[in-house]
Every structure is written in C-alpha cells, then in structure tokens.
Amino acid sequence: MNKNIRHELIHVFLFESGLGENSQWAQNEEMVDWFARQFPKLLKAFQAVSAI
Fold first, then answer.
1. How far, in Å, CA of 49 to CA of 34, rounded?
2. Torsion-angle region of residue 23: left (phi > 0), alpha (psi -120 to 50) or beta?
3. Per residue of the chain (52 residues), what is the pLDDT tens digit?
C-alpha cells in the first residue's frame, strides 16, 4: 500500500514539474517504481548525513 502511494506521489511531482509531458523517462513506470521502492532507503541515507 505505501509503495503504491509513493509511486503515485512520484508521478504527481514529475507531472507538476513539467517532466511528465516533456520527458519519456518520467513516464517510464519502471523508473517511477524504482524511486517508489528505493525512497525509504534514500530517506534514511539523507537523514544519516543530515541532508534533510
């Protein structure tokens, strides 16, 4: 469930920034899914080095 919500939110951010209409990779479901799956690890890494 959370991965699905992250997946859809990533789509929202990509389209909001204009990448959804102007970039093929931004519409690539595998890429969006990768970010959705990796986000928890990315968040922990950013927090570990005080980058957030």
1. 22
2. beta
3. 899 999 999 999 999 998 878 788 878 899 999 999 999 999 999 999 999 8
Given a contact cutoff of 8 angstroms between Cβ atoms, the answer to whether 10 and 36 are in contact is: yes
Tokens of 40: 């928890």
| H helix or E strand, kind and range, residue 40 | helix 29-48
Instruction: Select from 27, 37, 28 the least CA-distant residue to 7.
Output: 37
Q: Which two tokens stand for residue 31?
A: 């890429």
Tell me the domain boundaries of the chain: 2-48
